[in-house]
From TrEMBL:
<feature type="transmembrane region" description="Helical">
    <location>
        <begin position="126"/>
        <end position="149"/>
    </location>
</feature>
<feature type="transmembrane region" description="Helical">
    <location>
        <begin position="216"/>
        <end position="236"/>
    </location>
</feature>
<feature type="region of interest" description="Disordered">
    <location>
        <begin position="313"/>
        <end position="356"/>
    </location>
</feature>
<dbReference type="InterPro" id="IPR003593">
    <property type="entry name" value="AAA+_ATPase"/>
</dbReference>
<keyword id="KW-0159">Chromosome partition</keyword>
<dbReference type="InterPro" id="IPR027417">
    <property type="entry name" value="P-loop_NTPase"/>
</dbReference>
<feature type="transmembrane region" description="Helical">
    <location>
        <begin position="96"/>
        <end position="114"/>
    </location>
</feature>
<dbReference type="Pfam" id="PF17854">
    <property type="entry name" value="FtsK_alpha"/>
</dbReference>
<keyword id="KW-0131">Cell cycle</keyword>
<feature type="compositionally biased region" description="Polar residues">
    <location>
        <begin position="1"/>
        <end position="32"/>
    </location>
</feature>
<dbReference type="GO" id="GO:0003677">
    <property type="term" value="F:DNA binding"/>
</dbReference>
<comment type="subunit">
    <text>Homohexamer. Forms a ring that surrounds DNA.</text>
</comment>
<comment type="similarity">
    <text>Belongs to the FtsK/SpoIIIE/SftA family.</text>
</comment>
<keyword id="KW-1003">Cell membrane</keyword>
<comment type="function">
    <text>Essential cell division protein that coordinates cell division and chromosome segregation. The N-terminus is involved in assembly of the cell-division machinery. The C-terminus functions as a DNA motor that moves dsDNA in an ATP-dependent manner towards the dif recombination site, which is located within the replication terminus region. Required for activation of the Xer recombinase, allowing activation of chromosome unlinking by recombination.</text>
</comment>
<feature type="compositionally biased region" description="Basic and acidic residues">
    <location>
        <begin position="940"/>
        <end position="953"/>
    </location>
</feature>
<protein>
    <submittedName>
        <fullName>DNA translocase FtsK</fullName>
    </submittedName>
</protein>
Amino acid sequence: MATRTSPAARSGSSGRTPARNSGGNSSKTPAKSGQRGGSTGRGSSASRQAPPDQLPLPLRVVESAWMGISRLAGAGVRKLGTDVSPEREIRRDGTGFFLLLVALAVATVEWWALRGPVADIIHAGAAGTFGWMAVVLPFMLTTGAIRLFRYPERHRANSRISIGLVIMLLAGAGITHIAGGLPALSDGFDRLWASGGIVGFLVAGPLSAALTVWPVLALLSLLVFISILIITATPFRHIPLRLRALYEHLMGQDLAPDDPEAHDQSYLYGTPKPQKVKKPRKSRREKEAEAAAAQDGFAGDEAFERALLQDEEDEAAAAAAATPAAPAVPPGVRRPTQAELATQKIRRNQGLPVDDGMGADAAEPPTEAISTVPGATEVLNLAAVPPVAPVPSRPVAHTPPAAPIPQRTEQLQLSGDITYTLPPSDFLPPGPPAKERSEANDAVVAALTHTLEQFNVDAKVTGFSRGPTVTRYEIELGEGTKVERVTALSKNIAYAVASSDVRILSPIPGKSAIGIEIPNADKEVVALGDVLRSNSARKTEHPMVMGVGKDVEGGFVVANLAKMPHLLVAGATGAGKSSFVNSMITSILMRSTPDEVRMVMVDPKRVELTAYEGVPHLITPIITNPKKAAEALQWVVREMDTRYDDLANFGFKHIDDFNKAVRNGKVIPPAGSKRVIRAYPYLLVIVDELADLMMVAPRDVEDSIVRITQLARAAGIHLVLATQRPSVDVVTGLIKANVPSRMAFATSSVTDSRVVLDQPGAEKLLGQGDALFLPMGSNKPIRVQGAWVTESEIHRVVEHVKGQLKAVYREDVAVTAPKKQIDDDIGDDLDVLLQATELVVTTQFGSTSMLQRKLRVGFAKAGRLMDLLESRGVVGPSEGSKARDVLVKPDDLAATLAAISGGDAPAPSGGAGAAALADNANANHGFDPTGPVDLVAADLDGRPQAEDYHDGAEDPDGSEDAWNLTGR
Ligand SMILES: Nc1ncnc2c1ncn2[C@@H]1O[C@H](COP(=O)(O)OP(=O)(O)OP(=O)(O)O)[C@@H](O)[C@H]1O
């Protein structure tokens, strides 16, 4: 082992340099030549063989003119409909433009019967070959041209469409040949041209001779039908679904983009139809980046990225809904313009007098009295409450589209050539329809109004928005009324509405209004299926998107786990954590293939996650032993380091960029390496009870979590830590500082709420899925009712997933490295001592304060580490305030680390040197379904075969080992 490692390690830099060069060259050169030689990918390879400078001048001019016009035409076509922007080097504008020209020429001749010597040649070519089908030829050619302009990178889809079109053309020519009376060659070319052309003759002639006409006609019609299915990528069983979608589209009933229920509700409640918010124009760069992300399905970091996904249409509708219904305007009074209304609002907010031009009374809401609902007042015992003006409820603009999500079928790569179909969306049935207002709401409005009047507070309930578990009532203050006058009434309000769980928000974020959240007497379940079918979830295909639940305004909350990038879930027992974790895992299983997401599940409680045992997304069996879980976290750290090595070696900053380049064939292994580079799946690590892990190995677990959370984002590794004990000894300061997104379910005390959210609030939640969600980057938590998924739904999804693919477990995840002989004085500090050694030796700077800073340890610990380093001969004795001499040279680092750790050298933590590569290699031997393993060479049971790994003997200069010893 050592002999194999050492040459690789020593020659690591030299071994990797040529590799990087070759990779870099091969990935960069074509890009450049593609740009220079024009946008045609194939054209560019031709121009590489014969550079344009060597072409004669006239030809160069023609080539440039052709490419210039092609690019212009391409740019125009790309701008049609949804703007797309394929990468420059893969564009095929030249070919697309050629097809377009041919289409135009054929159309001019066949559609408008243009005649002349050139037109005759075109007619002979088109009608002579395909007969009557020459009339549809321009459509087909234009389709091909548009595909090449807009989606040149979608090779498989383009080939599929081409095959479909060719089958259609052949069968169509055959049919027209039969329709033209089966002319023979002896009947002359004119008759052939007026029927199916020479192709029709060749297709239908022999067939009709062998069979009779009618069976051939049926066969050819069937072929035309099949060609349509091929072109539209419609499997047989999806035909009814597609026909329904087409019908709805033609009838203008598309549910997804334009929800009719929202309109109905606007009509019912007099709310203005939500207006489309004009989006700011995007720069070309932004558009290109978005298009690239869309092509890839998902991309790396974005500016102002949010973990929370919200549909822009939903937001616009919600914003429109949040504007109170316009009061009735008396005849003869001018309604203020939008600009005037905005000015008035600002002046009102600033406490300045407002001239609304309608007289003081005109601003009052309509005074039509409603009779308070007798049943509801009885419930709240409010017989004495006087009638109040009607209060508009905010229409819920977030009803999920009823149409199922089209089922996605993928060809898996990591798991061999397996076609994997995501579970159909009807596995998660819709929940009960959301209510917009109920009698209980009207009763609460009456109670609130009465309370405000009773205490002479100049404030009004102006509206409410009903969520599944709580309703938020909005109160607007009269001029000169202090916010505190309402907040001071919290106990009286609680008394009036007979509920102790009243939460006051002052103000509601983004509004000049006070919010009072009061639990609904009639709660509603939020079905996970509805959340996953919402517009926000449908808009993205990112595999790490999960359905969170519904907010207080009834809007669906969907979040991207990859952007969080790590999540802490906490709450008292029974508050709904496990249900949330179940929704999260089910969302992933519903939306992602095992190629896209792999999971590590840690379930010390042993019962919560057993339903998922055996799903192919798992990398290791569900871990129930806390000690093994701690080791698994260390494996995740190693996996992260390996991914980082790949990122560094191939020059990428984020795993999404790396994966995108791999899919585009731009990541090329070094010459001579047998490694097959594959995209890395996201790795989701779910710990269902962090407290159990922290009890057995607090330091190791904390170290691993901190290291993963600090770095793993770019490596596509994300942590979800759930605990019912959010105390400072479980969720330590370090863990908290590195886990930016929080989901707080009901906690038992305000202290626990502060640990989770850094603010009070969670102690007032109602339990059973009621939660405060604080995604990374937002400072105000959102109140949500968690999505709910039943056990039978989980069972169906799991059975579907398991039925397609067996889990292939990695064997090294929970395997402990053999215990090494560690000196007593080092004790538990081995890891940090090794880091200190690496730091001091690589920087050649023996300073205690540097250790404090870099390793984030206290002065006493840094001093102790320095003493240990002195006792091992790494640094010299203390020289007062000066840094100590470093006695070990960087070349001897590996040996020194090995000596300290009492065995073979462990991986220097952040080291990017050759030793690090080689050492990681030692740590990672084994089959790796998460990584780019050549599955061709691996057993299906996950064991590597001999040819997976190279023998250093085959590769005298060792350069190959520097790559292949990473076990990939
Ligand atoms: N989103 C939800 N919608 C409706 N009911 C829910 C929801 N979440 C939880 N509940 C209810 O609360 C009960 C307890 O939830 P859950 O088991 O998830 O709590 P927990 O916090 O994981 O508790 P423990 O820590 O004891 O396992 C569930 O059985 C269910 O009845």
